[in-house]
Write a structure and sequence with these properties.
Blueprint lengths: L36 H6 L4 H6 L4 H11 L11 H9 L7 E7 L8 H8 L1 H14 L2 E8 L4 H16 L15 E6 L9 H8 L23 E5 H13 L1 H6 L10 E8 L5 E6 L4 H7 L9 E5 L19 H6 L8 E6 L4 H15 L5 H18 L7 H11 L9 H15 L1 H5 L15
Parallel strand pairs: 1-2, 1-4, 2-3, 5-8
Antiparallel strand pairs: 5-6, 7-8
The structure holds flavin mononucleotide and iron/sulfur cluster (SF4).
Length: about 450
């Protein structure tokens, strides 16, 4: 892939990335090549597994709860709390651990970096999560187009199994756990956890009605924990150094602890990824990306993928964390900022985003199946300057119908968020797309 379109690169030098401050990326090589098993072991690899498997699963869950690692797949739900709900009651093994590596959110390329360059960190996190959740089988559900990640993970799983880190009686602990790599065919909806489970089972990837939640009844009817790649990659550090250390990583910038793999794409000088404390101000992230390219000004930005709401330049002072961005009316989402320059017309941008959401709808519920293509048609007309009076109100009403609680999954609310926020902040641009009635010939007035 050409350097021009490959954004999934870390833009921090090895000097900046230290084990005490950069748990996700300190082991990455300067040359961007894969960190194999030998190098991973040299860099304290599988140290957390060695320690944790000598204790009990409840202790792992207790540490994860105190650390409050919030899910990096977009919703920010505490991983420890999720695990605690799954563990309770029942026979052993309890069920399955699934790593969500579908990563198809537009503007998001963080899990890709971790899987391509540091797959053993994910495997270590999965062993720990499997141990805590009393599972014996883990799955990585990987976006099919991520061929380099598939190769790296496949090789790392084989290496780990060969060395006794996967399979029976891991490290002499008596705990059995293995991982299977499953590549999807490349649909956005497969990233929704219940659609992912259907797809994993060989069914059509429609989301399932909740409840029951996957933690109660997931893959093949068993309790199933679904976690994002980055969430799981945080686990070894938390267990190695403790919940207080993890909390301290955000350095008082946020009530949430830890670091986050943030990123920037769009018309910036240096698109890429940075591991920074949770709560880093958005302005600092944009600075690290070199600001806007070509002397442009910032018009708006999406904080974490296409399914988040637009924020304005005045919001750059905000801390990038789940609650702060939520209070500003958007969502942190995946934490990868998409920058919109001042010369970008919003109707065209929205038409592009909503075309994606319409194409990726699974078609199960009416507001999403019918509403999204209708939204695209209205936006196309506005873009051509052929909109009709009332179109903005129609778009607003469609956005309401796509909103939370009206559909089976969060795909439709995700599609509504950028639309609603763009209509609020940039209304005049959409109004300008409404064709005015042709003036009547002179003499026919009145
Ligand atoms: C349409 C849609 C697509 C999603 N895609 C992804 C994805 O690619 N990766 C991911 O981790 N979570 C994705 N999610 C969120 C998952 O449903 C789920 O919340 C997440 O995997 C839980 O992991 P976490 O708690 O570690 O964040 C998606 C959600 C929706 C509604
Ligand atoms: S909201 Fe859309 S993607 Fe989600 S279940 Fe309904 S039709 Fe499918």
């Amino acid at each position: 892939m050409s350097a021009a379109v490959y954004h999934s690169r870390l833009r921090q030098s090895a000097e900046e990335r230290r084990a005490e401050t950069h748990p996700l990326t300190w082991r990455l090589r300067e040359d961007g090549e894969l960190v194999g098993l030998a190098e991973y072991l040299d860099k304290d690899g599988y140290g957390a597994v060695r320690e944790a498997l000598a204790g009990d699963p409840e202790a792992v869950i207790a540490t994860m709860k105190t650390a409050n690692v919030r899910g990096r797949g977009g919703a920010g739900f505490s991983a420890g709390t999720k695990w605690g709900l799954t563990l309770t009651g029942g026979d052993l093994p309890r069920g399955y651990l699934v790593c969500n590596a579908d990563e198809m959110e537009p503007g998001t390329f963080k899990d890709r970096l971790l899987m391509e360059q540091l797959p053993h960190l994910l495997i270590e996190g999965m062993i720990l999560a499997g141990f805590a959740n009393r599972s014996r089988q883990g799955y990585v559900f990987l976006r099919g187009e991520y061929r380099r990640a598939a190769r790296a993970l496949g090789q790392a799983i084989d290496e780990a199994r060969e060395a006794g880190w996967l399979g029976g009686d891991i490290g002499g602990s008596g705990f059995d756990f293995d991982i299977a790599l499953h590549t999807g065919a490349g649909r956005y909806i497969c990233g929704e956890e219940t659609a992912l489970i259907n797809s994993l089972e060989g069914r059509r990837a429609n989301p399932r009605a909740k409840p029951p939640f996957p933690g109660q009844s997931g893959a093949w009817g068993k309790p199933t924990v679904v976690n994002n790649v980055e969430t799981l990659c945080n686990v070894p550090g938390v267990l190695r150094h403790g919940a207080d250390w993890y909390q301290g990583l955000s350095g008082g910038l946020s009530e949430d602890g830890g670091t986050k793999l943030f990123g920037v794409s769009g018309r910036v000088a240096r698109p890429g990824l940075w591991e920074l404390p949770m709560g880093t101000p958005a302005a600092e992230l944009l600075d690290r990306a070199g600001g806007l390219a070509g002397g442009r000004d910032l018009k708006a930005w999406l904080p974490g993928g296409a399914s988040t709401g637009f924020l304005l330049p005045e919001h750059l002072a905000l801390a990038l964390d789940f609650d702060t961005i939520g209070r500003a009316g958007s969502r942190l989402g995946t934490g990868l900022m998409t920058v919109v320059p001042d010369d970008q017309p919003m109707p065209a941008l929205l038409r592009n985003l909503e075309t994606f959401f319409a194409r990726e709808s699974c078609g199960w519920c009416t507001p999403c199946r019918e509403g999204l293509p209708w939204t695209v048609r209205l936006l196309e007309a506005l873009e051509r300057g052929e909109g009709e009076p009332g179109d903005l109100e129609r778009l607003e009403s469609l956005a309401r119908d796509l909103g939370p609680g009206r559909t089976f999954c969060a795909h439709a609310p995700g599609a509504a968020m950028p639309l609603e926020s763009a209509l609020t902040h940039f209304r005049e641009e959409f109004e300008a797309g409404i064709a005015r009635p042709a003036p009547r010939p002179v003499g026919e007035e009145g």
